[in-house]
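User: tokens in, sequence out, please.
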């Protein structure tokens, strides 16, 4: 008879991970494996995978009664990454491994029937939980090593199969920890159009540059064919590459969602859900409270094309993450919190037919249809959008003119955006802080507003009936414009340009 053996693993709960003790006890009785401790269907099926993997690795399967407990029992657990710690716990309790062989380490991995260890989701979360618990070594599938190495301060050992791990723990054949590369180069996204690919629309391109420099939410409104979608897709090419901390967060979120299993995030995310997407798809949720599109857009762009076509309830649910930069999902079995610091880029037509106010096309919409369409976006939601930019169609003669291909506009804009980001870093002392994320108190602390600028701003606020939120958003946009102009203080001209982007009629 063996003793009770304990293996440490991790249960991802939302954006965080909680340590789980996988306990194994072998007693006399009818042969069988019982798993307790609030596990889901995948965990209950682990008994067959574990038994086959141990047997096919030429290790001994105890022909006794085996009880596995996942503690704490009140914490819901799901996923296949408990396969490996369950197998090791059985080997330890049956005397094939010593307790000291499996101490001071975290184990996670899915087992194939032949004993191979398959990649899992949530590897970054598991590695972070180990670091916070001051556990120095993490054993993960080889395919997850690259993700786990993003977490500094821990040793990551990649596992190919359970047999090689067994020999390693027995100190008969060592597996060397994975080595970190000196620098992980991140690239900007070049898949979308560049500014030079867009004919005309100089004001819209200027607005896009401002939005990219200050991380401002932006809405393009105009008739079909004006280039709204193309402008929105050009945004990602203007944003700088992910920093190390941003790369960790993005990879972690996409791994938890099962979108990145054995790789890291290639670039800033650009999520463009279809207008039929539900509220749960946008915000997150479901039985296991998975991250939604707003979290998968973290440190990137959420693009909503023809935003009035989305469900009203789904759009209203965006108000909280746009304001707080995170999403809290509460279910009967627990609460999950995910970050949601994204740029919202949206487009819309002026009316259902798309030609209201177009001098070259007659609008066929009734006044009732027009009013219903425009009211689909509530005032509180529009108030959370920093910049509203009207876009008109480019005339045919400009489309057919012989334009020399170059990247002057794109390179100039990217250079200005980079300098603006550097100014914000020097001002706020953090790469995660930007002009759009300033609180009202931080605006008073960091941004100097002269008396003449304040007078003009107050007069405009009265005339435009700006809310308090809209008032401060004008200041934030003006600060970004000043940064692009390499100006120390916000001037009247900066405020004037910022006010142009509060057009809501």
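Assistant: Sequence out:
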């Amino acid at each position: 008879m063996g003793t009770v053996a304990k293996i440490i693993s991790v249960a991802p709960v939302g954006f965080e991970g909680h340590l789980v003790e996988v306990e194994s006890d072998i007693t006399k009785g009818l042969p069988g494996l019982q798993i307790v401790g609030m596990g889901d269907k995948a965990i209950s099926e682990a008994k067959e995978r574990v038994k086959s993997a141990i047997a096919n690795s030429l290790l001994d399967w105890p022909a006794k009664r085996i009880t596995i407990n996942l503690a704490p029992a009140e914490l819901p657990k799901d996923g296949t990454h408990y396969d490996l710690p369950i197998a090791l716990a059985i080997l330890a309790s049956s005397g094939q491994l010593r307790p000291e062989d499996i101490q001071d380490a975290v184990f996670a991995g899915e087992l194939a029937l032949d004993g191979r260890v398959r990649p899992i989701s949530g590897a970054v979360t598991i590695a972070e939980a180990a670091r916070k618990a001051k556990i120095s070594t993490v054993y993960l599938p080889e395919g997850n090593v690259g993700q786990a190495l993003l977490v500094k301060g821990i040793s990551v050992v990649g596992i190919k199969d359970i047999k090689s791990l067994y020999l390693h723990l027995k100190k008969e054949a060592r597996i060397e920890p994975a080595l970190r590369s000196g620098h992980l180069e991140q690239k900007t996204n070049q898949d979308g159009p560049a500014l030079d690919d867009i004919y005309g629309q100089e004001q819209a391109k200027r607005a896009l540059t401002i939005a990219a420099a200050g991380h401002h939410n932006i809405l393009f409104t105009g008739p079909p064919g004006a280039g709204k979608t193309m402008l929105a897709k050009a945004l990602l090419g203007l944003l700088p590459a992910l920093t190390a901390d941003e790369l960790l967060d993005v990879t972690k979120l996409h791994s938890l969602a099962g979108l990145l299993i054995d790789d890291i995030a290639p670039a800033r995310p650009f999520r463009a859900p279809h207008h039929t997407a539900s509220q749960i798809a946008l915000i997150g949720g479901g039985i296991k409270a998975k991250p939604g599109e707003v979290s998968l857009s973290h440190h990137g762009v959420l693009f909503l094309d023809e935003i009035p076509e989305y469900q009203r309830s789904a759009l209203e649910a965006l108000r909280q993450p746009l304001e707080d930069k995170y999403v809290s999902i509460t279910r009967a079995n627990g609460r999950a919190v995910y970050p949601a610091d994204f740029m919202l880029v949206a487009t819309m037509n002026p009316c259902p037919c798309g030609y209201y106010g177009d001098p070259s096309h007659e609008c066929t919409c009734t006044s009732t249809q027009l009013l219903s369409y425009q009211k689909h976006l509530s005032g509180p939601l529009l108030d959370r959008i920093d910049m509203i930019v009207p876009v008109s169609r480019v005339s045919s003669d400009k489309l057919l003119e012989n334009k020399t291909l170059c990247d002057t506009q794109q390179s100039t804009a990217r250079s200005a955006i980079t300098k603006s980001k550097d100014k914000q870093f020097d001002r706020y002392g953090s790469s995660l802080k930007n002009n759009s994320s300033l609180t009202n108190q931080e605006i008073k602390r960091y941004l100097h507003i002269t008396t003449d600028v304040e007078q003009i701003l107050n007069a405009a606020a009265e005339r435009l009936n700006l809310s308090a939120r809209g008032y401060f958003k004008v200041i934030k946009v003006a600060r970004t414009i000043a940064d692009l102009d390499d100006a120390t203080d916000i001037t009247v001209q900066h405020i004037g340009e910022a006010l142009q982007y509060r057009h809501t009629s």
